Amino acid sequence: MGIGLAEWVVANLAFTPGERVLMVESDVDMMFRGGIVDFPMGPSEISTKIEGWTIKSGGVLILTNKRIIYAVKGRKYLLLKTPKILFESPISTIYSVGVARGHVSELVVSLETQIWRKDKFYFRVKDPNDWAKNIEELISLHRNKRGGP
How many domains does the chain fold into? Predict the structure, then answer.
């Protein structure tokens, strides 16, 4: 059996000094409701390849101590399908995190993409409460470092 998507993405990430992987989950579905197109007017450090009402399935969600990343299988290159990172955001741009309750509970990550604008990404993970708790701790650590609210 070959290398999985999660292992491939983690092995090929360009880590910054001091960055480490905290959580990884495969087979994650993501839904985005918003109007972002590569963040033309928002923060340049946020990267996304999605717009409007978008649903992607079977991806991998990765949380490091500095950012959150969502990737899916991309195009076939030679004999391998190379991963495509659809969403990547530093922890500093996350406005809030929570769990949406309904038929299925989902992790909700809200980003401040423009002044007065919050865009939400929904991730269907096995334990959204655990993901939310870990991301909230990182947000709190980041805010304490920079002296914010």
Answer: 1
Angle (CA) 98 83 55, round 5°: 45
Cα 33 from Cα 17, distance rounded (Å): 33
H helix runs in 29-127, sequence order: none
The whole-number mean pLDDT for each consecutive block of 10 residues of the chain, a chain of 149 residues, reads: 75 88 94 57 48 77 94 72 81 89 84 66 94 95 72
**DSSP designation for 144:** H
CATH number for the domain including 135? 2.30.29.30
- The predicted pLDDT at position 61 comes to 96
How far is C-alpha 6 from the chain's CA centre?
A: 13
